Amino acid sequence: MTTPSRYWREIPQRYRLEANKCKKCGFVFFPPRLICSQCQNRKFEETKLAEKGKVLTFTIIRVPPQQFVDQAPYAVGIVELDDGVKLTGQIVDCDFEDLKIGKRVKIEFRKIFAEGEAGILCYGYKFVPE
Question: Which CATH number fits domain 50-130: 2.170.130.30, 3.40.50.720, 2.40.50.100, 2.40.50.840?
Answer without folding.
Answer: 2.40.50.840
